[in-house]
Amino acid sequence: MEGKTMKKIAVVAANGKEGRLITEEAVKRGFDVTAVVRSENRTAAQNVLQKDLFDLTAEDLKGFDAVVDAFGAWTEKTLPQHSTSLEHLCDSLSGTDTRLLIVGGAGSLYVNPEHTACVMDGPDFPDSFKPLASAMGKALGELRGRNDVRWTYISPAADFQADGEKTGEYILGGEELTLNERGESVISYADYAVAMVDEIESGEHIQQRISVVRK
């Protein structure tokens, strides 16, 4: 961080698997990190805001350089919260300079140059994951209409490995599914966290969806 002002960031849903790794990576790099959690803090963050995401206010998020949205919902009843939670965070950050970086999904990545077909449309995409991919894709579509927020949506590779190794290396892609030299679309949660914090540092890709895959 030499020559840079220490960045102040908040990680929403920081107690989750990905949220914890992003928090840890940011703390390691010298960021001033606040964990936004509903229960007792289980992260490496120096500061804690114990509050439900849906109860967060614009005042709560004031003064942060970046807010990371690591929220996830998995049950049929809660899947619509991918849209409502993102809308709430966008409304809270509307018109500010604070960046909003979202831990996204891979199902909405395009598989053709025309951007008419997505990973989740493929015949090999598991039926059990379709409702989640669809809910996350809907939230992304709504996010694209927000010109009042400095958002960046980061999709992982198709095989997103919770316990995969940390290599510290990855390939940065765009809207389309990207394969590495071995023809894989895979990344670990740990390497994704590295990519997320790199993006916070670089300050690029405003109002864009990007993607990451293991090198």
List keywords for this structure.
215 residues, eight-stranded mixed sheet, globular
Describe the structure.
The chain is an alpha/beta fold and 215 residues long. The protein contains four helices and ten strands. Helix 1 packs across helix 4 (189-202) and helix 2 runs parallel beside helix 3 (130-143). The strands form two sheets. The protein has an eight-stranded mixed β-sheet with strand order 3-2-1-4-5-6-10-8, with helices on both faces. It has a two-stranded parallel ribbon with strand order 7-9. The chain is 25% helix and 22% strand.
Summarize the structure.
The protein is 25% helix and 22% strand.
Separation, N- and C-terminal Cα atoms: 25 Å
Output the number of helix runs.
Answer: 4
Question: What does the main sheet amount to?
Answer: 8 strands, mixed
User: What is the beta-strand fraction?
Assistant: 15-25%
Kindly provide the radius of gyration, computed on alpha-carbon positions and rounded to a whole number of angstroms. 16 Å
Helix content: 10-25%
Strand order of the main beta sheet, please? Answer: 3-2-1-4-5-6-10-8
- What general form does the structure show? globular
Instruction: Catalogue the unreliable spans.
Output: none
Mean pLDDT: 95
The succession of helices and strands, N to C, reads: EHEEEHEHEEEEHE
Structural class: alpha/beta
Number of strands: 10
